[in-house]
Amino acid sequence: MKVLITGARGQVGTALTAACTEVGIQHLGLGHRELDITDGAAVQAVLARERPDFVINAAAFSDVAVAQGEANLCYAINRDGAANLAQACEAVGAGLLYLSSDYVFDGLQARPYTEKDKPNPRNVYGNSKLEGEEAVREYCSRHLVLRTSWVFSAEGNNFFMRSLERAMSGQPVKGVNDQISCPTWAGHLAIVCVAMLQQVHCNIEPNLWGTYHYSDRGATTRYEFARTIVAQAVQAGLASETQVQAIESADLQNRAEEARQSVLSSDHLFFTFGIRQRGWRQGLKSALEAVRQGQRAA
Ligand SMILES: NC(=O)c1ccc[n+]([C@@H]2O[C@H](COP(=O)([O-])OP(=O)(O)OC[C@H]3O[C@@H](n4cnc5c(N)ncnc54)[C@H](OP(=O)(O)O)[C@@H]3O)[C@@H](O)[C@H]2O)c1
Fold this sequence. Notes:
globular; NADP; NAD(P)-bd_dom_sf
């Protein structure tokens, strides 16, 4: 089985590359400079040349706050780029795994969101991801849409790294206490993606295609997440005790950041693929270990 990864230098793309290497899956990871998914002709040419069994799209405009002011670019990448990949996959008979987000939901529901709940995005990013999903379903018969939440890793600019860097430089760390979801370590997410593709690849029936949710286990607030990041970083000897402040989304003065509850239920994935959730606190330990190893290598 051969897997092509787009957006391969992002946090999930990097983790996917590592997960494929770990289990010995033939793969080709293309970063933004090697393949721009908004270039339909380039996407078609690469797929016709490489003939992968599966494409995992980890390329995205992923900054929820910045997307509010850059809607055109956000839609070009998250919706039109997804459509390009879906059409090219269909043309060569490849399956497409499209990573999507809890932001397709409005965040107003008290219970966890299942795949049967109606999306109702409230910002540009969420809407662009929903329209990306719709394009994938429309153009590519062999598709998996995998929604996830609050992805973190030792790569790139994410809440975990921003909080850790502040703690390491002795600055107070802030986290909103009115947004609730499940942090998800990119390493766990990548293992899930690979496990899904391996099962689909072995399955004679095409009945595994469709939409699924995966988040690491354990709902929390950004504030509690920040507190745990600092506590584990102190325990790991990466930072000294520092103050963690609870704030509210309204304080962020950003329309994309609202009080919300967007816990995703991963039950459908478990009952279909037998894939269990891993805990985000365990993922946090792994991410901190990756930071430590990066420091040693530097
Ligand atoms: N991060 C989260 O909390 C989160 C939560 C739920 C779902 N997701 C989804 O998970 C997926 C991976 O996100 P991530 O956190 O890994 O994001 P990321 O770290 O921002 O990585 C995205 C990658 O896509 C690349 N990219 C941007 N425009 C591109 C284009 N036109 N063609 C090819 N590559 C392009 C970026 O490269 P440059 O930096 O060079 O532009 C970057 O390397 C996305 O679909 C995202 O929507 C993320």
